[in-house]
Amino acid sequence: MAASDAGPRKERRKYQRRQADRRTQQRRSGRDRRSADEGWQAVTLDVVSTGPYDEAGLVAAAADARRRARARFSNFQVGAALETSDGELVTGCNVENATYGLTMCAERVALYKALSEGRGVFTRIAVVADTDDPTPPCGSCRQLLWEYCGDIDVVLANLSGVKARMRLSQLLPLPFDARLLR
Asked: What is the predicted pLDDT for the residue at 12?
């Protein structure tokens, strides 16, 4: 190994260890974390398994879903993979309509599928698009993800790999939720 490669590899390994430790600490329990008065609440972290999917598997599932996108007007195909607290993945792709306003984003398709199948506790979502820069969820998707998922991890990738990792609270710093409806 060249001396110039040692630094980046060491940093990458440290980053991967930190990510694995953080994911282990942040697994959500099966209890509902919503409060009608205060919005999302922290819970005791008693689910420690991430299931069979590492980050690469999560991104691969989103990329696979992207291939099924119905984007005949914009040709902008997006795929999403939403991970449940027990490690299952629910995928979605964008589905366009000629009026655009009726278009469903990949993130919402995955969320609605998961909710309609009885899943309700989520840990992270990956979003994949064919762009150079990360493609974050739109405002509507951010709001719905906040309402139903809380402050989950968001992994943004393109066809060649992960471009950004963040918490939903970074994408939606001042969320509107139930605590404001008093």
From this structure: 57
